[in-house]
């Protein structure tokens, strides 16, 4: 099945003039190039969001600091949240889905290649629109500004009365435009997975990453729609005299919260399910065992998908919903811990009895398991509504969701970056630098986000640009800020490692990890058409079957 | 692999540090006295609702710590035990799953969830369904950008930023019930030692209650982002013995004292924009946008707890509020030095 000999057509020559090479990338409909562009685009915004986070942390390094003004601080945390969720995490997740899914399914491309390109450019322009607010939001005649309403933009702070100028409009439009792109990509992923699998690959024999992306795509369609509706309602309020969220005219601030969080909580799973997908591909390969309980993993994923649509109001335990609704959302939120716990147990069981290779991707996956365990447990604390009346909107919550997003999603994304880098570029990264990145980031992560729980327990609310001395928060905040520099250094090592490997790394070959899914059966980098011959599979580990004809998987499935 | 050893020791170290911290924060909070760690420690409760949250949180912390210990040990064991040995290139036995094991780790978490759920529901009921006794004090708290207005409808008292409530004897409770309103954007009332937080949302009145078991000053701050100066919207609750509280109410019910030495300041106050926003009961000033100043000198702080109520701070606040609280909605009054002195002197007579 090896197609190593088949080269990338037409573009291989460095002889092409730069302008034509750029033209090829801009006009491409190839899922691999779009995937790479999504990821690179996401990385640019990851760095931007990281810089914003650094400004936030420098301001909070000591009480009564005046590194930035309150106005700038408020813009920073708004931009940080919006950037990281919509323009870093989602593009990166979509980028990996784009790149990997057709390859894993044995397909030549996504189902709708041109829609795919269209979605990418919508997302890209959405991000540019958000950052254009820096110069355009007050109109070009005035000093610029950026949105400052927080990433969940609670009404009525977003009304014309409290948000003058156009910063909120840039925020609204950026999210709306990129939302259209996200929904289109989700439809594309859904159709690709349902219709483009190679012969023999039934739903029950897909790689788990495909399953998790399938559920993710369903959630995107369900969750992004109410968000877009809410943005349109907000625009109507701001420009057409509507009163949906205008509390002075009988509108409801609470309705916005419901609209936002019925997007906002599934969004967590939109990001974390693909991360679970990475872990479910990487952990088996480096443990040299198949995933433990494939069908249970699928069931848990689908269960998470359904339950995640009914937990949103746990973000609203403090708004006075009354005991009935509070009880319901306590229940649904706790229930979702069960399938999530099952996943952690299955990953551990996959490692159990294996021969674990501690390569960089595996190190990041082990970090993920440790941190995601803690994130889940602090999640249970927050699910107890009365405990949340104390912890909600404090730094404890900030620490909790960064444990999910950084400790869970970003760690597995790093693992995925190292794991599939040889496939995407055909080059191998440097293992020592990879480990250096891991240790720097692990130390930085725990200095920042483990310690960050404590000021929350000591009563420090989020989104304050400064705080009083004498509250017992000073030392903790100092440590939290110090951790940021370790993380930044870690990311620098990653970028350096991958840049170096791209230009000077040793050749990786088509299957450096001795892995089992179809993407490793084609050349690295794969040719534009992916497979010279569409593969035919009999189990969920086609390359295992090929490498072990004496003991193939399909006998047991 | 050589990496395994360092990884394990660092992780184990991290674990013991964080469990130690959790534990010390929770236990250092000897209930009934202020925590040495922070005046806003949530594990240092001093009222019925904050106590029941505290008890629930100890239970939840205990359960989650147990889960953590089990799963973390499994992870450490797996990493220790199943590392690939150098030179061993054979594939391990391929195991695909086990229904019995899956069933076990589905059922056990469900049981844990049921226990946590029942404990939680009880505290929700105890707190949210608590019937208001006839001895309760009623206060309307109104969130403003960026200060708190308190109205005591039963006593005819209106004040700002410093809430006074009577201490509540557990055998004969005199709890304080707050009706939470907002003048414009969302806010949240959070004094961790007295109760969990409840939001103040425009057009969506909320209720909360607390029955402080000890006297003293309890602090907190706005916990829902409300605009530029969300950070400097501090909460101060003075819990007083009943007699002292009644005395405070008496003093607050009186209209403003008239002091001849401050007549010039009063003239300036009443002939400038001050009265558009501020009320001084018994005078022409009846604005509602800013805090009621009738008994300004009865308060320890100005600008929602941000600065001590001293002569210098008061004068600075009138001259340039941004120096104390940038983004505050109080405008710089553009008064001359003499006028500033006079107005400050007038305000200082409002006892």
Features:
heterodimer, A: 557 residues, mainly alpha, Cytochrome C Oxidase, Chain A, 17 helices, 0% strand, globular, B: 351 residues, alpha+beta, Helix Hairpins, Immunoglobulin-like, 3 domains, 5-stranded mixed sheet, 8 helices, 17% strand, disordered N terminus
Q: Any idea how many domains of chain B?
A: 3
The second-level CATH architecture of chain A is Up-down Bundle
Low-confidence residue ranges of chain A: 1-8
Q: Give a quick account of the main beta sheet of chain A: strands, pairing sense, barrel closure.
A: none
- The average pLDDT of chain B is 91
State which percent range the strand residues of chain A make up: under 5%
The domain count of chain A comes to 1
Radius of gyration of chain B: 28 Å
Query: What is the total tally of β strands of chain A?
Result: 0
Level of helix content of chain A? 55-70%
Q: Beta-strand percentage of chain B?
A: 15-25%
Q: Helix count of chain A, per DSSP?
A: 17
What is the top-level CATH class of the largest domain in chain B? Mainly Alpha
Order of helices and strands of chain B: HHHEEEEEEEEEEHHHEEHH
Q: How many DSSP helices of chain B?
A: 8
- Approximate shape of chain A: globular
Order of helices and strands of chain A: HHHHHHHHHHHHHHHHH
Commentary on this structure:
The complex is a heterodimer of chains A (557) and B (351). Chain A is mainly α. Chain A has one domain (27-555): Cytochrome C Oxidase, Chain A (Up-down Bundle). Chain A is built from 17 helices and no strands. In chain A, α5 runs antiparallel to α6 and α6 runs antiparallel to α7. The longest helix of chain A has 36 residues, at 70-105. The radius of gyration of chain A is 23 Å and the shape is globular. The two termini of chain A are 22 Å apart. The model of chain A is unreliable at 1-8 (pLDDT under 50). In chain B, a hairpin with a 4-residue loop joins β11 and β12 (307-308). Chain B has helices at residues 2-28, 48-81, 99-128, 242-253, 263-271, 274-277, 311-319, 337-347, and strands at residues 137-144, 147-152, 157-160, 162-166, 176-182, 187-189, 198-200, 206-210, 216-221, 234-240, 301-302, 307-308. In chain B, the strands form four sheets. Chain B has a five-stranded mixed beta sheet with strand order 3-2-1-5-8. Chain B has a three-stranded mixed beta sheet with strand order 4-10-9. Chain B has a two-stranded antiparallel ribbon with strand order 6-7. Helix content of chain B is 39%, strand content 17%. The N and C termini of chain B lie far apart (75 Å). Mean pLDDT of chain B is 91; it is low at 1-16. Chain B folds into three domains: 2-85 and 94-128, Helix Hairpins; 137-253, Cupredoxins -  blue copper proteins (Immunoglobulin-like, Sandwich); 260-347, Immunoglobulin-like (Sandwich), CATH 2.60.40. By secondary structure, chain B is α+β, with helices and mostly antiparallel strands. Chain B is elongated, with a radius of gyration of 28 Å. Chains A and B meet through α3, α7, α8, α9 and α10 of A and α1, α2 and α3 of B.
């Amino acid at each position: 099945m090896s197609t190593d000999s088949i080269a990338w057509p037409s573009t291989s020559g460095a002889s092409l003039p730069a302008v034509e090479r750029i033209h090829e990338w801009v006009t491409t409909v190839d899922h691999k190039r779009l995937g790479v562009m999504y990821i690179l685009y996401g990385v640019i915004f990851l760095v931007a969001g990281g810089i914003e986070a650094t400004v936030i942390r420098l301001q909070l390094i000591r009480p009564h600091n005046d590194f930035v003004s309150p106005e700038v601080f408020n813009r920073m945390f708004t931009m940080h949240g919006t950037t990281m969720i919509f323009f870093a995490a989602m593009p990166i997740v979509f980028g990996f889905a784009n790149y990997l899914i057709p390859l894993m399914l044995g397909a030549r491309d996504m189902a709708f290649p041109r829609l795919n390109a269209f979605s990418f450019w919508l997302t890209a322009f959405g991000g540019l629109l958000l950052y254009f607010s820096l110069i355009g939001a007050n109109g070009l005649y005035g000093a610029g500004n950026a949105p400052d309403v927080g990433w969940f933009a609670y009404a009525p702070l977003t009304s014309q009365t409290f948000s003058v100028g156009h910063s909120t409009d840039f925020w609204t439009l950026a999210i709306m435009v990129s939302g259209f792109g996200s929904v289109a990509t989700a439809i594309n992923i859904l159709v690709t997975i349902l219709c483009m699998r190679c012969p023999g690959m039934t739903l029950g024999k897909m790689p788990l990453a495909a399953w998790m992306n399938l559920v993710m795509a369903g959630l995107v369609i369900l969750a992004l729609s109410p968000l877009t509706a809410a943005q349109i309602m907000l625009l109507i309020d701001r420009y057409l005299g509507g009163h949906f969220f205008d509390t002075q005219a009988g509108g409801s601030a609470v309705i916005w919260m419901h609209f936002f969080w019925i997007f906002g909580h599934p969004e967590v799973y939109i990001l974390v399910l693909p991360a679970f997908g990475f872990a479910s591909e990487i952990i088996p390969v480096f443990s040299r065992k198949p995933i433990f309980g494939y069908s249970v993993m699928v069931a848990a994923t689908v269960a998470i998908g359904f339950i995640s649509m009914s937990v949103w109001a746990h973000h609203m335990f403090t708004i006075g919903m009354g005991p009935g609704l509070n009880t319901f959302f306590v229940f649904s939120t706790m229930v979702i811990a069960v399938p999530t716990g099952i996943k952690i147990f299955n990953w551990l069981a996959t490692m159990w009895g294996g021969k674990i290779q501690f390569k960089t991707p595996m190190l990041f996956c082990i970090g993920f398991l440790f941190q995601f365990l803690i994130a889940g447990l602090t999640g249970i604390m927050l699910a107890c509504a009365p405990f949340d009346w104390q912890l909600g909107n404090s730094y404890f919550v900030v620490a909790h969701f960064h444990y999910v997003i950084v400790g869970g999603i970003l760690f597995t994304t790093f693992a995925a970056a190292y794991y599939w880098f040889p496939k995407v570029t055909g080059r191998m990264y440097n293992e020592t630098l990879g480990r250096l990145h891991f240790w720097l980031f692990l130390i930085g992560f725990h200095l920042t986000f483990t310690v960050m729980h404590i000021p929350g327990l000591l009563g420090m609310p989020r989104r304050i640009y400064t705080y009083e001395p004498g509250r017992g928060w000073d030392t903790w905040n100092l440590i939290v800020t110090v951790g940021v520099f370790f993380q930044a250094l870690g990311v620098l090592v990653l970028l350096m490692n991958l840049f170096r490997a791209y230009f000077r790394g040793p050749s990786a070959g088509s299957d450096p990890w001795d892995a089992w899914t179809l993407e490793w059966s084609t050349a690295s980098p794969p040719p534009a058409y992916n497979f010279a011959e569409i593969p035919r599979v009999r189990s969920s580990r086609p390359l295992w079957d090929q490498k072990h004809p004496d003991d193939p998987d399909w006998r047991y499935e | 692999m050589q990496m395994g050893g360092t990884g394990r020791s660092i992780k184990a170290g991290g674990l013991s540090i964080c469990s130690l911290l959790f534990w010390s924060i929770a236990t250092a909070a000897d209930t009934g006295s202020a925590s040495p760690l922070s005046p806003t420690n949530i594990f240092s409760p001093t009222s019925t609702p904050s106590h029941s949250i505290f008890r629930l949180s100890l239970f939840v912390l205990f359960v989650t710590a147990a889960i953590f210990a089990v799963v973390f040990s499994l992870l450490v064991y797996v990493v220790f035990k199943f590392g690939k040995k150098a030179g061993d290139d054979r594939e391990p036995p391929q195991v695909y799953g086990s229904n019995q094991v899956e069933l076990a780790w589905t059922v056990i978490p469900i049981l844990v969830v049921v226990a946590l759920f029942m404990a939680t529901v009880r505290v929700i009921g105890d707190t949210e369904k608590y019937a208001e006794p006839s001895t309760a004090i009623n206060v309307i708290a109104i969130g403003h950008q960026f200060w708190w207005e308190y109205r005591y409808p039963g006593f005819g008292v209106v004040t700002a930023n410093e809430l006074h409530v009577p201490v509540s004897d557990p055998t004969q409770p005199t709890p304080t019930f707050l009706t939470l309103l907002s003048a414009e954007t969302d806010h949240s009332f959070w004094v961790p030692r007295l109760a969990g937080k409840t939001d103040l949302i425009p057009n969506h009145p909320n209720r909360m209650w607390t029955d402080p078991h000890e006297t003293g000053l309890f602090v907190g701050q706005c916990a829902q982002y409300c605009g530029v100066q969300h950070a400097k919207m501090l909460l101060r609750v003075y819990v007083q013995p009943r007699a002292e509280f009644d005395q405070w109410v008496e003093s607050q019910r009186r209209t403003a004292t008239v002091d001849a030495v401050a007549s010039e300041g009063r003239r300036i106050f009443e002939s400038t924009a001050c009265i558009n926003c501020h009320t001084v009961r018994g005078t022409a000033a009846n604005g509602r946008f800013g805090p009621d100043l009738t008994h300004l000198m009865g308060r320890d702080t100005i600008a929602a707890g941000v600065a001590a109520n001293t002569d210098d701070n008061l004068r600075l606040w009138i001259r340039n509020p941004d120096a104390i609280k940038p983004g505050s909605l109080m405008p710089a009054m553009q008064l001359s030095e003499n006028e500033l002195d006079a107005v400050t002197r007038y305000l200082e007579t409002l006892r």
